[in-house]
Write a structure and sequence with these properties.
With 263 residues, the chain is of the alpha+beta class. The protein has one domain (2-262): 2,3-Dihydroxybiphenyl 1,2-Dioxygenase, domain 1 (Roll), CATH 3.10.180. It is built from nine helices and ten strands. The strands form two sheets. An eight-stranded mixed beta sheet has the order 2-3-4-1-5-10-7-6, with helices on both faces. It has a two-stranded antiparallel ribbon with strand order 8-9. Strand 8 and strand 9 form a beta hairpin. The radius of gyration is 18 Å and the shape is globular. The model has no long low-confidence stretch (mean pLDDT 95). The structure holds nickel (II) ion. Residues 40, 42, 94, 164, 166, 234, 258 line the site of nickel (II) ion (NI).
């Protein structure tokens, strides 16, 4: 198997260890006669030079990925890019970073301590994206971060691992309509993120997306162990743009609401 596919397989294994619902949904679809193609994976980080978007992108550009789109999320204080591979069956990679300078001094201090604590050698390895949390954090600090940014708090507790994988709805045979797909998921006991409506986007913006609500996992903080949201599963249906090609970008307004799946 080629190295890139193997890397994604390892990222997937890491992701489902935190997000058992994703494996359950994949198997549910496969048992329903579907073949699963991954539209994109999403990664989160901070805009610190040690771990920023540029750094994380290198794990993919070395396999031939190229940067395509840029996105700004004013309210959530995030910047993001997406990368594409020449092989259209390889997932797009969506990487966002938290704009630390837009937060309180205390918030920045906690995040700086986290980043300073990450082993340089680990960051040089592509395994970094499945290393999880390699620093200590207290639940009280987690809660303080949560007051300013759900994303920042999630990063502090969960660390470096895929935030979500995404089923390409275009590649499904029977569930190619997102409304039907959502209904099927709910009938099978899965909860959807309803922030901004179950379906984000539209045919007009060439992209419709929905997502589950994040699984909850037990996290051991330095002062207590408690349950917090981990990761979610996403579904994307793409439409042709004005050039007649399937749109491959992202819609900031929709992604903004999807970020809330870990809320
Ligand atoms: Ni996504």
């Amino acid at each position: 198997m080629d190295k890139l596919q193997k890397y994604f397989d390892r990222l997937w294994a890491n992701y489902i260890s935190m997000t058992p619902q994703a494996l359950a949904i994949k198997e549910l679809f496969e048992n329903n006669g579907e073949t699963i193609v991954n539209d994109h994976i999403a990664l989160r980080t901070f805009n610190h030079p040690k771990v920023n978007i540029i750094k994380l992108a290198t794990y993919f550009t070395k396999y031939g990925y190229v940067k395509k789109g840029e996105y700004k999320f004013e309210e959530k204080k995030l910047f993001a890019i997406h990368l594409e591979h020449q092989n259209p069956l390889m997932p797009k990679v969506f990487i966002s970073e938290l704009l630390l300078e837009e937060f309180s001094t205390e918030f920045q201090k906690t995040c700086s301590e986290i980043i300073d604590g990450i082993d340089e050698a680990l960051i040089e390895s592509e395994d970094f994206l499945m290393s999880g949390r390699t620093w200590d954090i207290s639940y009280s600090n987690y809660e303080k971060l949560l007051k300013e940014s759900e994303y920042g708090a999630w990063m502090s507790a969960i660390g470096y691992r895929p935030n979500h994988f995404t089923i390409s709805v275009n590649h499904l045979k029977n569930l190619s309509d997102l409304t039907e797909l959502n209904k099927f998921l709910k009938e099978n006991g899965f909860s959807l993120n309803e922030s901004g409506g179950e379906i984000k986007g539209s045919k007009e913006v060439c992209l419709e997306q929905s997502s589950t609500l994040a699984d909850k996992i037990q996290v051991k903080f330095s002062d207590k162990t408690t349950e917090i949201p981990s990761c979610y599963f996403e579904f994307a249906k793409r439409y042709e743009d004005e050039t007649g090609k399937l749109y491959q970008g992202f819609v900031a307004k929709s992604a903004d609401k999807i970020f809330e799946s870990t809320n």
